[in-house]
Write a structure and sequence with these properties.
globular, 47% strand, 6-stranded antiparallel beta sheet, Jelly Rolls, mainly beta
């Protein structure tokens, strides 16, 4: 799920202030505390090989975030593919992988316990 800034409905629009809000943008019920994350990823980065060994060889943590700049392609467990572009808000449910098509700066909010386990796995893959 992704949404461009101008597609997020305006809730307040007065001189000097615009507030946009989209409801139903993922569910964090049942997850641990949240982590704030900032990723800088170069074009050509593909995390799929590093996810080998995780459930279904995919990231099993959900993420909410904002792509500041660049472009990434997210592939889900069912084969669906979503292109996320700079300026997009997004929600990636568990069961995905990410490939970077243009240098990307990404802000993520993820369940801490679940995503730290994935990041630890990625680090071990890089060292091993």
């Amino acid at each position: 799920m992704r949404i461009a800034k101008n597609d997020v409905p305006e809730q307040i629009n007065i001189p000097g202030a615009i507030a946009r809000q989209v409801k139903g943008f993922g569910d964090a019920t049942g997850y641990s505390g949240m982590a704030g994350e900032y990723f800088s990823l170069a074009a050509g980065t593909d995390i799929a090989p590093l996810l080998k060994g995780l459930e279904n060889d995919l990231c099993q943590s959900p993420h909410w975030g904002y792509l500041i700049e660049g472009e990434v392609t997210v592939t889900y467990h069912d084969g669906a593919v979503d292109a996320v572009h700079g300026g997009d808000l997004f929600y990636w449910p568990p069961g995905h992988t990410v490939a970077v098509t243009k240098d990307a700066e990404i802000i993520l909010f993820s369940p801490q316990l679940e995503h730290c386990a994935v990041v630890d796995h990625l680090r071990k893959q890089l060292v091993g």
